[in-house]
Specification:
Blueprint lengths: L4 H22 L5 H7 L17 E4 L3 E5 H11 L11 E4 L10 H11 L1 H14 L2 E3 L6 H8 L6 E4 L13 E4 L2 H8 L4 E4 L2 E8 L8 H12 L7 E6 L1 H4 L3 H9 L8 E4 L3 H9 L3 H8 L9 H5 L7 E6 L6 E3 L7 E3 L3 H8 L5 E6 L7 H16 L7 E4 L4 H9 L2 H6 L4 E2 L22 E5 L15 E5 L2 H10 L11 E2 L5 E2 L21 E2 L36 E6 L6 H4 L12 H4 L18 E2 L6 E2 L1 H10 L4 E5 L11 H9 L1 E6 L4 H9 L3 E5 L13 E4 L11 E6 L5 E7 L4 H9 L2 H6 L4
Parallel strand pairs: 2-3, 2-5, 3-4, 5-6, 8-9, 8-11, 9-10, 14-15, 14-17, 15-16, 17-18, 22-25, 25-26, 26-27
Antiparallel strand pairs: 1-7, 4-21, 12-13, 19-20, 22-28, 23-24, 27-30, 28-29, 29-30
Helix pairs in contact: 1-12, 3-5, 3-7, 8-10, 11-12, 15-18
Length: about 750
């Protein structure tokens, strides 16, 4: 039986009437995305049609999910809200704080020892406030959500950018910062600008070496890391219907890499099969009663150009396996072109590691297809040239693939089986030799491959591909190996060609697990005590940010002018810094240390205008804060792309940065800045970025007139006394300006005014 079946049935009970009314208001057939949005309005029954990309709308999500690294700050904020329990079903998943090094058993034991304080805190807060708690080792948040909580036609938010994975089960699942999650957990509405819609029509059918991963790798190559910003991507067509549910999840998962609000597929037989296999036939029974409302109206998919803001068509029968990278997930290379691309760009051809898993590709089907390649290599006497590592997506997946012999197949190749956790995908990987910073290549089935992401080495060239291609490339030890055309030499000197991968969509014997790792909350948590030691270096109770004083910000110093790509990894690194995610002061010591300073092209080296000396970014900002000097950060395009981590907004806020002025923002980061009472601004004229000088002092001339739709005027005073007046746009509405005035959105909640 499904978790929260009563809630799911209630969603379906309201859906038909609300969608029918919305269809009349809009005056045309509706996409699936629109049906879900209009049936989840905070007001309940729709009363107006909304304009895509323009109107801010209040929604009522069905549930919230948090992973341990972001849950700490989210729950510390929720404790300030003064609520007795969460208002919607909520879960916490411990998957980020487990370092991959020696193997599952040892790594989990070490994590439970090193992060005991954090895990105990999350467990007790969950127990107190009615939150489901998934223990360390239970699995990766998004795989567990897909297995237990996702349902067609639902709307959920999660404090991780890859919450979008649940789109594989026909949801709209959206990554947010912790402050957004706190709103919903507190019983408030959740605000989102009504998204634009991108349709992706999939014709033909996947076959041979091509996998669902290749669909999103191709889409990322087409749209780039910012092409989906402000939009929902809706997949449809015969190719979509022929794909497995977990394959759909993989595609939706990596929608975060194109900046999309989320991605989804219409309800179909693959979802029915998956729900039934994971013990949720009751959801199938409920969904089938409203099945026509869980996909787009017929004319939408018949004439998609009339309904989507952008349309992409991909013939799966012609799609090649892709290998994307290095250093960005949107640089796509078909496997047939890799030999020439690698040679032209000087990419290291020797593959050192092959890594399979992460929230993107850790399903039963992923593991079984990759194992089919491994079995062939063993049978033919082929010795792998690279090291292998796998992260099962959940304890249910691990238990089942062990039962079915898949883990044994991997271990015959010397594979290291890591904990059911994120591990190397998020930089939680103690890779031997990474500190030498040697130029090398790894291949993985993860979603992101930014510089230093996996192992901390800026010279590691990480390439993203499907699990089966990871297996083939790791066995060959060559980045330019094409398993479709090339052969390998076995221990007898014979040339062997690998057959195309194969594997079961779902386990023929069904899923099984002894202990999934779930802890249900206390029915009455009022007596549960949550204790945070004042001397802890891992956890720190929050103090409210100060409200705006109502005056223009003047005398502000430029902290840094970031050059090029500046992701949340650059603003607030993960890896070893994850241990401080619950301690705002300590985690702030990593603020912007990965950003490229446009003036000296160095990282973590900026000019302190109070002394004239160069120093680390956090140290310079702490000096400004101690002196009572405000500061601003300037950035390039798609600033804050990547993770949903709100620490990237809270750290500058905590250390005294007043505004972030960039060419463009990634959606989640812009919202996070607003929620924390920051000014998130964009250049009205992008060329003005070039006018910013290293010794600039900045004065806001009309902040006292801050209003929706009204640009702000900033005066940049240069060291020689000359000035530039720069206009800055913003997307604040009245309620968001209220967050700025109050000092943060949380301040309004705590005061009972939100």
């Amino acid at each position: 039986m499904a978790f929260d079946i009563e809630m799911i049935e209630k969603v379906y009970a309201n859906m038909a009437a609300r969608v029918d009314i919305a269809r009349e208001l809009v005056g045309r057939p509706l996409t699936l995305s629109e049906k879900i949005l209009y049936s989840h309005l905070w007001e309940g029954t729709p009363s107006q049609a909304f304009t895509r990309g323009k109107d801010y709308v209040d929604f009522a999500p069905d549930r919230v999910a948090c992973q341990d690294a972001t849950a700490q700050m989210a729950l510390l904020q929720f404790m300030h809200a003064g609520k007795k329990t969460v208002a919607v079903p909520t879960t916490v998943h411990c998957d980020h704080l487990i370092l991959a090094k020696n193997g599952a058993k040892q790594d989990l034991e070490l994590a439970n020892k090193q992060s005991k304080e954090v895990f105990d805190f999350l467990s007790s807060v969950s127990n107190k406030y009615g939150i489901g708690f998934w223990k360390p080792g239970s699995g990766i948040i998004h795989q567990i959500v897909l297995e237990n909580y996702a349902f067609p036609g639902g709307l959920m938010i999660g404090t991780d950018s890859h919450t979008v994975n649940a789109g594989g089960l026909g949801m709209l699942a959206i990554g947010v910062g912790g402050a957004d999650a706190v709103d919903v957990m507190s019983g408030m509405s959740w605000e989102l600008k009504f998204p634009k819609l991108i349709g992706v029509k999939l014709t033909g059918k996947l076959s041979g070496w091509t996998a669902p991963k290749d669909v999103i790798l191709k889409v990322a190559d087409i749209l780039t890391v910012k092409g989906g910003t402000g939009a929902i991507v809706e997949y449809f067509g015969e190719g979509a219907e022929a794909m497995s549910c977990t394959g759909k999840g993989t595609i939706c998962n990596m929608g975060a890499e194109i900046g999309a609000t989320t991605s989804t597929f219409g309800y179909d037989d693959s979802m029915r099969r998956y729900l039934a296999a994971t013990g949720r036939q009751d959801v199938v029974n409920a969904a089938d009663k409203v099945a026509s409302y869980l996909t787009a109206d017929a004319d939408v998919y018949a004439n998609p150009a009339n309904y989507f803001d952008q349309l992409i068509e991909i013939n799966l029968s012609e799609l090649e396996p892709h290998i994307n990278g290095p250093f960005t997930p949107d640089r796509g290379t078909p496997v047939s072109k890799m030999k020439e691309e690698a040679a032209a760009n000087g990419w290291p051809l020797k593959v050192e590691w092959g890594l399979i898993g992460s929230c993107t590709n850790s399903s039963y089907e992923d593991m079984s297809r990759a194992a089919s390649i491994v079995r062939q290599a063993v049978a033919h006497g082929i010795t792998p040239k690279a090291e292998f590592g796998i992260n099962p997506g959940s304890e249910q997946i691990r238990f089942t693939i062990e039962r079915d012999g898949i883990i044994a197949d991997f271990e015959k190749m010397g594979t290291k089986v890591f904990t059911n956790a994120c591990g190397p995908c998020i930089g939680q990987w103690d890779r031997e030799g990474a500190d030498k910073q040697e130029k090398n290549t790894i291949v993985h089935s993860f979603n992101r491959n930014f510089s230093k992401r996996a192992d901390g080495n800026p010279n590691t060239h990480a390439f993203v591909t499907s699990p089966e291609m990871v297996a083939a490339l790791a066995i060959s030890g060559r980045l330019d190996f094409n398993p479709i055309t090339d052969t390998l030499i076995n221990d007898k000197g014979e040339a062997v060609r690998l057959n195309a991968p194969f594997g079961d969509e779902l386990p023929t014997k069904g899923f099984d697990v002894e202990d999934p790792g779930f802890q249900a909350p206390a029915e009455d948590g009022s007596s549960v005590q949550v204790v945070v030691s004042p001397t802890s270096d891992r956890l720190q109770l929050l103090e409210p940010f100060l409200p705006w004083d109502g005056k223009n910000i003047t005398g502000a110093k430029l902290l840094i002018k970031a050059f090029g790509k500046c992701t949340t990894d650059h603003i607030s690194m993960a890896g070893p810094w994850l241990r401080f995610r619950g301690h705002l002061d300590n985690i702030s010591n990593n603020m912007l240390i990965g950003a490229d300073n446009a003036f000296n092209r160095k990282t973590n080296s900026v000019k302190n205008q109070l002394t004239g000396a160069y120093d680390e970014v956090p140290k310079v900002q702490r000096a400004y804060k101690a002196a009572g000097v405000p500061s601003i950060v300037v950035g390039d395009h798609n600033y804050g792309e990547g993770s949903s981590r709100e620490h990237a907004a809270m750290e500058p806020r905590f250390l005294g940065v007043k505004a972030v002025l960039v060419k463009s923002f990634a959606r989640i980061h812009e919202t996070n800045l607003k929620k924390q009472g920051m000014l998130a601004l964009t250049f009205a004229n992008e060329a003005d970025y070039d006018k910013i000088q290293e010794d600039d002092t900045i004065n806001f001339l009309d902040l006292t007139e801050f209003a929706p739709g009204k640009p702000l005027t900033l005066e940049f005073v240069h060291a020689d006394g000359s000035k530039d007046i720069i206009m800055a746009n913003h997307t604040y509405n009245d309620s968001q300006i209220g967050w700025f005035v109050a000092g943060s959105a949380l301040n309004l909640i705590a005061a009972g005014k939100a």
